[in-house]
Hints:
Blueprint: H1 2-5, E1 7-10, H2 13-24, E2 32-33, H3 36-45, E3 60-62, H4 64-69, E4 75-79, E5 86-91, E6 94-97, H5 100-108, H6 116-123, E7 127-135, H7 141-145, H8 152-160
Parallel strand pairs: 1-4
Antiparallel strand pairs: 2-7, 3-7, 4-5, 5-7, 6-7
Helix pairs in contact: 5-6
Amino acid sequence: ARAATLRKLPVSSREKGDIIMLGIGGFTPLPGFMTHADWQGVCDGMKTAGGLFWPIPITLSTDTETAASFRTGQEIALVDPDAGTPLATMLVTEKYSINKAHECAAVFRTTDPEHPGVRMVLGQPAVNLAGPVKVLSTGDFKEKYGDQFMTPAETRAMFEKGRIKIRSAYRS
């Protein structure tokens, strides 16, 4: 109900997936979208500013005009790009621009726009918003993927019960 009263920011499909991963614990211990210092550390050395190994930036971007309309310290609602329903709330702690070519070269080892990851980064809006998120929904993922949609806790439980077995690629 609170999310419905907040300023809304539609997210991209990738960002929706990232929100869901944050919510189900797939990106633990990240509290939300990365700060500039975290982004820089991940690009330059695969570590957040606090030293946590992380190979790919987890960012939320928007256009310059929209970013300017949000203030640091403001809570916003992140909404599903298709349904328009709230996926999460976020406390905006920082707004920053990035060097997209640097991110592409660091993460994908190329700046070739034919690479799908490079194309995605180059197509992002100009400003990243950082801050912790409170995830409210898994969107339509659970309905869409059924039993294949599992949280990290659910998969660990299945491993422990022996319902999922890991096969070694090596034979003794």
